[in-house]
UniProtKB/TrEMBL annotation:
Similarity comment: family membership: Belongs to the HMG-CoA lyase family.
PANTHER family per UniProt: HYDROXYMETHYLGLUTARYL-COA LYASE
UniProt organism field: Brevibacillus panacihumi W25
Matches recorded under SUPFAM superfamilies: Aldolase
Uppermost EC category: lyase
Protein name: Hydroxymethylglutaryl-CoA lyase
Family matches, as InterPro entries: Aldolase_TIM, HMGL, PYR_CT
Length: 304
């Protein structure tokens, strides 16, 4: 069995950092992630820099990244202006985003769900005219910080709308980290009726410590694409209290332990995690990274 990992740390992770991360650090991190064998990396966002100043250097980051056949770089695009920037940056794939809950969508995008559909449809059509692939994100599928439980019919309706726009892959997000394995099996079990499992991805946060358990539950119902963030970086500025995404290191360790292929070299991946942890100057949530660095420290002390 093979699982595709979509690395979202450079965008979803770093966008929440209070201190601006230097462009050179972002580029070095992405290069290290690519060197580990990750083939899809969400590098940045073309959301207006006034809203996410951390990613104001999107064009420069993409201009300086080496391009090759082995890695696809993507970026979040909110509207036609963002798409123009993505096209100018030479991207072959973009990502659209919206929420399954009305209140979160309103606070995140400043539009109702119904008002969001025509905007995304216009962007998707334009992107396809440029020969670009389009991915979709649906937030708050498993719970909303403002509304609580989100009916599965909300996610079904949004998923169907995105499919009709020609989105090739839809990432369903547990934005505030409330999902449990039982809920994951139920919701994905329902949504695979609308789209084949091959077109659905899981995007889990680990706020309540259930992130990896939810990965196993999603595997059980046929999901083979997972979003994760190096070191467990991330959160959501519109979801109070939301912890980071599941860690890429933890995800790869889990999958390899289940004899599932990812194409990722865990040792090189941990080099990327150690690098960004050092650059940010604080310990990151990844448990596998912590164990790896602790073992290294012990070995160094033993050699001393």
């Amino acid at each position: 069995m093979h699982v595709k990992i979509v690395e979202v740390g450079p965008r979803d992770g770093l966008q929440n950092e209070k201190e601006i991360v230097p462009t050179e650090v972002k580029i070095a991190l992405i290069e290290k992630l690519a060197a580990s064998g990750l083939t899809t990396i969400e590098a940045t966002s073309f959301v207006n820099p006034r809203w996410i100043p951390q990613l104001a250097d999107a064009e420069e980051v993409l201009a300086r990244l080496p391009r090759g056949k082995d890695v696809t770089y993507t970026a979040l695009v909110p509207n036609l202006r963002g798409l123009e920037r993505a096209v100018s940056s030479g991207l072959q794939e973009i990502a659209l985003f919206m929420s399954a809950s009305q209140t979160h969508n309103q606070k995140n995008i400043n539009k109702t769900i119904e008002e969001t559909f025509p905007v995304l449809r216009e962007v998707a059509q334009a992107a396809h005219s440029y020969g670009m692939r389009v991915r979709g994100y649906v937030s708050t599928v498993f719970g909303c910080p403002y509304e609580g439980d989100v009916p599965v019919d909300n996610s079904r309706r949004v998923t169907q709308a995105l499919l009709e726009m020609g989105v090739h892959e839809i990432s369903l997000g547990d934005t505030i980290g409330v999902a449990t394995p039982k809920q994951v099996r139920h919701i994905f079990g329902e949504l695979v009726k609308e789209a084949s499992a091959e077109r659905l991805a899981a995007h889990f946060h680990d706020t309540r410590g259930t992130g990896l358990a939810n990965v196993v539950a999603a595997l059980d119902v046929g999901i083979r694409i997972f979003d994760s963030s190096i070191g467990g970086l991330g959160g959501c500025p519109y979801a109070p209290g939301a912890a980071g995404n599941i860690s890429t290191e933890d995800l790869v360790y889990l999958l390899h332990g289940m004899d599932i292929d990812t194409g990722v070299d865990l040792e090189r991946l941990m080099e990327a995690g150690a690098y960004i942890q050092q650059q940010l100057g604080r310990e990151l949530p990844s448990k596998v990274l912590k164990a790896h660095l602790a073992a290294d420290d012990c070995a160094k002390q033993g050699d001393a």
